[in-house]
């Protein structure tokens, strides 16, 4: 984690510098560094920072290169993919983000990459401030809103449709403001596509909001009570946060599936997201298998960073869960307080009505009014408690689960590499045996197999190094986001508490003269 | 659990719902109190220059049962039938608090040392608050008696204040409790009967109004009191919730990355302070609102009891009238009937006169008490809200100030 590295004070010593430094350090540790060389324009120069890769990088092809190769897959996106396009800058801060996501990561682009390798110092030719600005400021000029939940259909086939509005100045989108209607399973479908493409190569894909059979059934059945409205609002807010997190990820933002989700008016229905579908069951089986595998993989961790990080995330997970449970209790009690205050307000009003001393009667009615307003206040504060504090924590608990998943994928990748090495060894042994037994045709076969497996071992090593590298970057980005997120939300939450107190002051100050007026 | 309360020494709880300003000829206060296993011993101190007493200053130790005995003695005394008898203080009840402390002790191993210490502190404060309240209630009872021109002259009262020995008043046993319970039922039935009695006209508008008023008032104040209690309880729960939150934030802070470390630690501190403030809001609402409502619940019951006695006297008077008429028609025992009727009439009128005064006093007492407590409540709420705002603002400045 960059924080531990204590980057030497730069120009203005802003903490965001550490990210740049990470890349720098990567440059130093790798013998070959690959940079897009377009020193001509300032903006594309930011790209080199993102595309720093280690030796045998087969996975981060330069945009320029990929453009030609991937055109067929990303018909929509072609016009945006130009490396020199100035709009690139906002999206691509300091992370590797090829326009095209490695859908088939095993494609060998290595030879091309090597030819493009440039010397590391290019990155340091740029001023520090420039790098900071890109890393810091309003890098993402894209705003997503999820609103207007609308019930569509009737009975058990009913569903809620949400309006997804995008406001952006990014040129990869055809318009600057547009909106579409999506249902919950569409969001799940999007996540499932992104996860299948990016998770196993080390990208932290934000998890989608959870399903809730109970909640949804209530809505379907048409219960118009406050609990189902609350449920819909909770879901709407969660979907909005989910999309906002997803577009913040520079790589995911480039993904055509994401773009299609945001832009196209018609979306093929994602049936595989249903819990009880065939795909759903397959998912559950896979999850179980994964869990078993995880227990049996014994990895030789050569890099202490990964072990440290995993431990840190494990601790963080536990702490957040504890805090989350306590905050949930707070929300519950505050709601109770609100309800009890409302009940008291009513009885105070009744008491005021019975009171036969006029001034006291009036004061009691005023008290009742104050208490009623206070009950509203408590309710709003409970919402703030929940939507700001509690939901932040639960989002991060699930995000950390995604992070842990990515670490697990790295282990699996290592395992695959290990297995390839073992198989290669076996093939070599077979060859030796065949040499001794002098069976020429078998020898040839063995040699072929050896070649095949040598390539696989090489690929396995490359894959493993790539995923390790990606994870390092991702974790850096994730932590940065997390710090920002927490800080912003904490401040917002405290401001809501201040608001409540200030309102309380207002109400009681208005009441005091009434109480004094009792003669 | 032992606890000493020097009620006289520290600032008097201004939570007392009644301003019992007696004149200086008889001053009563509870100067000390000790809580032992299941009873509380109050030290009742009297300062008086009244000729009746042997000394000008003296004190005795009394327990709750002796207060009840005194109260019952007043209620059963026919002489005071036309007066509102100050409601008896409620029995000291530490049961709930004790249970909670015990549960805490048995403990939940998942809470940290600091959390445990804080929760223990909270419960001890709660215990102390209950203790203070019970002392205040007992004191107010005595002070109202001392302030009342008629009640203060009661012989039993003098005995209670002066007699050095134990009054040997044991707590009511089950039979007596049951008896008391039955008496209440009989009373309500009787009341219902009387009011439905034909020919019983309430001649006085004042009392008609008072009756309607008190009936409704009593029900509604009971309601308000219950609900105020619930609000207070919710505030307490909220304050208690801040304990684990603060603890979790604190441990997060110590383990977190540098950028978030200070934020979490400051937040942990903030919640700890907010907890204290929230706790004070809860206890102030308890004292200024709940307790006041509860007191007037009991006082309005005492006023209702007075009205019942007067009504009973009226019914007796009516019956005596009827008996006199009957005796006159039969021309038998007219003299007895006449004197009986005279007696009833006198009694009824005496009761009515004093009841009227008592009820007017009740109203002014109530109004001034509500006024005082509502003002104090508003002032305290403001004080706490301002303190919270300051605290939150300072934290915000500190958090925003960091990179």
TrEMBL record, chain A:
Keywords: Acetylation, Cell projection, Coiled coil, Endosome, Lipid-binding, Membrane, Phosphoprotein, Protein transport, Transport
GO terms for MF: phosphatidylinositol binding
Any one cellular-component term (Gene Ontology): lamellipodium
Record region (Disordered): 1-104
Comp. bias regions, Low complexity: 27-50, 93-104
One GO BP: early endosome to Golgi transport
Entry keyword annotation includes Membrane: yes
Membrane topology: Peripheral membrane protein
Major localization class: other
Coiled coil ranges: 436-470
Compartments, as annotated in UniProt: Cell projection, Lamellipodium; Early endosome membrane
Residue intervals of the PX domain: 140-269
InterPro entries tied to this protein: AH/BAR_dom_sf, PX_dom, PX_dom_sf, SNX2_PX, Sorting_nexin_N, Vps5_C
Family: Belongs to the sorting nexin family.
Role this protein plays: Involved in several stages of intracellular trafficking. Interacts with membranes containing phosphatidylinositol 3-phosphate (PtdIns(3P)) or phosphatidylinositol 3,5-bisphosphate (PtdIns(3,5)P2). Acts in part as component of the retromer membrane-deforming SNX-BAR subcomplex. The SNX-BAR retromer mediates retrograde transport of cargo proteins from endosomes to the trans-Golgi network (TGN) and is involved in endosome-to-plasma membrane transport for cargo protein recycling.
Protein name per the record: Sorting nexin-2
Naturally occurring in which organism (per UniProt): Suricata suricatta
Lineage start: Eukaryota, Metazoa, Chordata, Craniata, Vertebrata
UniProtKB/TrEMBL annotation, chain B:
CDD domains associated with the record: BAR_SNX5_6 (cd07621)
Keyword Protein transport (UniProt): yes
GO terms of biological process kind: protein transport; retrograde transport, endosome to Golgi
GO molecular function, one term: phosphatidylinositol binding
UniProt-listed Gene3D superfamilies: Arfaptin homology (AH) domain/BAR domain, Phox-like domain
Residue ranges of the region described as Disordered: 1-26
Cellular component terms (Gene Ontology): cytosol; endosome
PX domain boundaries: 20-168
Stored SUPFAM superfamilies: PX domain
Ranges annotated as biased composition (Basic and acidic residues): 1-13
Pfam families membership: PX (PF00787), Vps5 (PF09325)
Keywords: Protein transport, Transport
Annotated family: Belongs to the sorting nexin family.
Annotated function: Involved in several stages of intracellular trafficking.
Protein name in UniProt: Sorting nexin
Organism per entry: Suricata suricatta
Source taxonomy: Eukaryota, Metazoa, Chordata, Craniata, Vertebrata
């Amino acid at each position: 984690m960059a924080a531990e590295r204590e980057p030497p004070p730069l120009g203005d010593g802003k903490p965001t510098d550490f990210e740049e430094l990470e890349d720098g350090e990567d440059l130093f540790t790798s013998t070959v560094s690959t940079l897009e060389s377009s020193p001509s324009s300032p903006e594309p120069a930011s790209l080199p920072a993102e595309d720093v890769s280690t030796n045998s990088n087969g996975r981060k092809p330069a945009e320029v290169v990929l453009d030609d190769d991937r055109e067929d897959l990303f018909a929509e996106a072609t016009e945006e993919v130009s490396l020199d396009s100035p709009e690139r800058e906002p999206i691509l801060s300091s992370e590797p983000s090829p326009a095209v996501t490695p859908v088939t990561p095993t494609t060998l682009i290595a030879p091309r990459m090597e030819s493009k390798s440039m010397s590391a110092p290019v990155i340091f030719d740029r001023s520090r401030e420039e790098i900071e600005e890109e890393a810091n400021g309003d890098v993402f000029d894209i705003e997503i809103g999820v609103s207007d939940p609308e019930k569509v259909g009737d009975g058990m086939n009913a569903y809620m449709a949400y309006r997804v509005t995008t406001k952006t100045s990014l040129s990869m989108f055809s318009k600057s403001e547009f909106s579409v209607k999506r249902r919950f399973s569409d969001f799940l479908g999007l996540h499932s596509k992104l996860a299948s493409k990016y998770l196993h190569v080390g990208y932290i894909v934000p998890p989608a909001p959870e399903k809730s059979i109970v909640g949804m059934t209530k809505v379907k059945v048409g219960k118009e009570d406050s609990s189902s409205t609350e449920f819909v609002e909770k879901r709407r807010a969660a979907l909005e946060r989910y999309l906002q997190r997803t577009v913040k990820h520079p790589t995911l933002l480039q993904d055509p599936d994401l773009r299609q989700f945001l832009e196209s008016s018609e979306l093929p229905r994602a049936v595989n997201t249903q819990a009880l579908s065939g795909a759903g069951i397959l998912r559950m089986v896979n999850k179980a298998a994964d869990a078993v595998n995880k227990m049996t993989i014994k990895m030789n961790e050569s890099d202490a960073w990964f072990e440290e990080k995993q431990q840190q995330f494990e601790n963080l997970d536990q702490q957040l869960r504890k805090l989350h449970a306590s905050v949930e209790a707070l929300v519950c009690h505050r709601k109770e307080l609100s309800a009890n205050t409302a009940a008291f307000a009513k009885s105070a009003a009744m008491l005021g009505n019975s009171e036969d001393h006029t001034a006291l009667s009036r004061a009691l009615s005023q008290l009742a009014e104050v208490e009623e307003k206070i009950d509203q206040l408590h309710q709003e504060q409970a919402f703030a408690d929940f939507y700001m504090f509690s939901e932040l924590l639960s989002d991060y608990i699930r995000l950390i689960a995604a992070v842990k998943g990515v670490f697990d994928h790295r282990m699996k990748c290592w395992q695959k590499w290990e297995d390839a090495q073992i198989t290669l060894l076996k093939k070599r042994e077979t060859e030796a045996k065949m040499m001794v037994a002098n069976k020429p045709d078998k020898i040839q076969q063995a040699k072929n197999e050896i070649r095949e497996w040598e390539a696989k071992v090489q690929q396995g090593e490359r894959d493993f190094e790539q995923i390790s590298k990606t994870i390092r970057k991702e974790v850096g980005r994730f932590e940065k986001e997390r710090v920002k997120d927490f800080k912003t939300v904490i401040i917002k939450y405290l401001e809501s508490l201040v608001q409540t107190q200030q309102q309380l002051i207002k109400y009681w100050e208005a009441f005091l003269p009434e109480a004094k007026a009792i003669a | 659990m032992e606890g000493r309360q020097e009620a006289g020494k520290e600032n008097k709880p201004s939570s007392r719902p009644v301003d019992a300003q007696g004149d200086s000829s008889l001053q009563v206060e509870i100067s000390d109190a000790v809580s032992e296993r299941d009873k509380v011993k109050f030290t009742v101190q009297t300062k008086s220059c009244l000729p009746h007493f042997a000394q000008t200053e003296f004190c005795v130790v009394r327990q709750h049962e002796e207060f009840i005995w005194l109260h019952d003695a007043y209620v059963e005394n026919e002489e005071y039938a036309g007066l509102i008898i100050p409601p008896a203080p409620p029995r000291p009840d530490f049961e709930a608090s004790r249970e909670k402390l015990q549960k805490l002790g048995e403990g939940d191993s998942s809470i940290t040392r600091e959390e445990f210490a804080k929760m223990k502190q909270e419960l001890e404060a709660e215990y102390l608050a209950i203790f203070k309240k019970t002392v205040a209630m007992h004191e107010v009872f005595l002070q109202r008696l001392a302030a009342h021109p008629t009640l203060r002259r009661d012989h039993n009262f003098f005995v209670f204040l002066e007699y050095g020995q134990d009054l040997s008043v044991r707590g009511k046993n089950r039979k007596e409790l049951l008896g008391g319970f039955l008496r209440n039922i009989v009373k309500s039935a009787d009341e219902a009967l009387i009011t439905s009695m034909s020919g019983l006209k309430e001649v006085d508008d004042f009392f008609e109004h008072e009756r309607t008023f008190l009936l409704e008032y009593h029900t509604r104040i009971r309601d308000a009191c219950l609900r105020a209690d619930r609000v207070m309880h919710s505030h307490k729960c909220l304050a208690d919730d801040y304990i684990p939150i603060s603890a979790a934030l604190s441990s997060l802070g110590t383990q977190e990355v540098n950028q978030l470390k200070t934020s979490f630690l400051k937040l942990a501190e903030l919640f700890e302070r907010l907890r204290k403030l929230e706790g004070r809001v809860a206890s102030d609402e308890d004292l200024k609102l709940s307790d006041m409502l509860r007191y007037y619940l009991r006082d309005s019951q005492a006023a209702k009891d007075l009205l019942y006695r007067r009504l009973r006297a009226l019914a007796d008077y009516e019956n005596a009238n009827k008996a006199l008429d009957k005796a006159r028609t039969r021309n038998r025992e007219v003299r007895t009937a006449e004197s009986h009727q005279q007696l009833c009439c006198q009694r009824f009128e005496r009761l009515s006169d004093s009841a009227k005064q008592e009820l007017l006093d009740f109203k002014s007492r109530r109004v001034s008490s509500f006024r005082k407590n509502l003002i104090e409540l508003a002032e305290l709420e403001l004080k706490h809200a301002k303190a919270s705002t300051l605290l939150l603002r300072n934290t915000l400045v500190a958090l925003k100030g960091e990179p």
